[in-house]
Amino acid sequence: MLRFAFFSLLCFAYSGFAQDADQSRATPTGPLPTPAAAQPVLDAETAIAKADWKAAEAKLAPWLIAHPADATALFDAGYIADAQDRRDDAAGLYKRAIGANPQSLEAHLSLGLLLARQGKFYEARPELAIATTLEAGDAGPVLKAKAWRALARIDEKADPTEASNDLLEALKLSPETMDDTLLAANLADQTGQYDEAEAAYRRVLTKDPRSPGANAGLAHLLIAHKHFPEAETLLRAALEQIPDDPALTAQLAAVLAAQNNAEALPLLEKLHRAQPEDSAISRMLAEVRSEAGDPAGSDSLYVELLKANPDDPDLLVAHGQNLSHLAKHSEAFNVFDKATRLDPTNAEGWSGLAYAASRTNQPEITLHALTMRSKYLAEVPGTYFLWATAYDTLHDKVSAASYYHRFLEASAGKLPNQEWQARQRLKLLEGKQ
Quick one: which of 74, 78, 163, 211 is 20 to 30 A from 285 by CA? Predict the structure, then answer.
């Protein structure tokens, strides 16, 4: 089974801000009442409707020189810059439009959406919230719904309950879309409403079997509940329709690894070659390599991952385990010691430290590590043997004999080499008592 919970890392590729440009900013709804002299603005908007940005700019530029506070012209100029991905110019023009007319729903909305696309959610949210309170004539409900949906996407990770409320406000103003259903499913999943989430994902898939977000989301639920065969079937079918989708492929690799299916390794190797900088894929591949008996290949990945996260206890423990498999016990000891100092509750770290201390002849530290481990995990034959050999090294005959007996009872033929050693030691220890 995989040590790290990566199943959800690549599940939610859906992002409401990654739509095409016309859907991620407000469309001009016509100029505010202006004098007849504003004909250049009307001409510019005619050009905008045809996506003729050069003609539109040619009309607006001289007008704005003469009328720098014309809110409609400023918004239209911002829209043109936005459409051409000149983000800084667009933001500046939208802000000037708001300064000229603070009641412009379109300007607040477009600025908020632009900032959200740039990942500036803290700045975007107030603009979008203001947009939900303003009026824009017949276009108002549609634009407000767009603002509410954008707020829902911003709130999705930080506050799923608030995001659900945002989405409900949007649905009061416009019909539900498949994106809405998918977002609702993601929110239900995050708030533990798994039945509702599954039903919503399946509704999306009924309408669009190719939906990457719905397939990934439903697979995430199935994996979380350890329904691996069903998740595998779903993911294989999805990948037939969307070949090489990275999120779905990563999930399939995780499902195969969870089922100890040998197909996981070549699949992860392929993913890693395609996305060598993806830390989630590197972690999964490192673990599967280790489980496939390639500690050196696994450790090469952990070493790279630790360069970026040198104080990650889980990475350190995995690195230490590989070093132990490679018989680099002194190095492993130092790594496990660091991991347990960083996270004293890491039971796997204490297990590794106990073993490494035993192999480097530090029985006192072995006993300390075993004592710490016992706070979080039950004893197993291997730990009984470590207790016994540590006490034996310290010449505590009574304790050593007691743990050798516990080891033999728990092992019951599973560890023949250690069992032979335990019996030999018991003959000597008990014969001298």
Answer: 211
Q: Per residue in 163-193, pLDDT tens?
A: 999 999 999 999 988 999 999 988 888 888 8
**Taking CA 138 as the corner, what is the angle to CA 133 and CA 143, rounded to the nearest 5 degrees?**
45
Report, as an integer, the average pLDDT of 301-318.
Answer: 95
Tokens of 215: 């397939």
Q: b or e along 82-98 (b: 16 or more beta carbons within 10 Å of the residue's beta carbon)? A: bbeeeeeebbbbbebbb
CA distance 269 to 117: 32
- Other residues' Cβ atoms within 10 Å of the Cβ of residue 423: 11
The answer to whether the beta carbons of residues 114 and 82 sit under 8 Å apart is yes
Q: Give, rounded to a whole angstrom, the gap between the first and last alpha carbons of the chain.
A: 45
CA dist 231 and 251 (Å) reads 9
258 three-state secondary structure: helix
What is the fold, at CATH topology level, of the domain defined by 182-289?
A: 1.25.40
- Cα(201)–Cα(231) distance, integer angstroms: 13
For the question of whether the overall pTM of this predicted structure is more than 0.70, the answer is: no
Interacting residues of 122 by C-beta distance below 8 A, sequence separation 6+: none
pLDDT at 358: 96
Locate the domains of the chain by residue range. Answer: 182-289
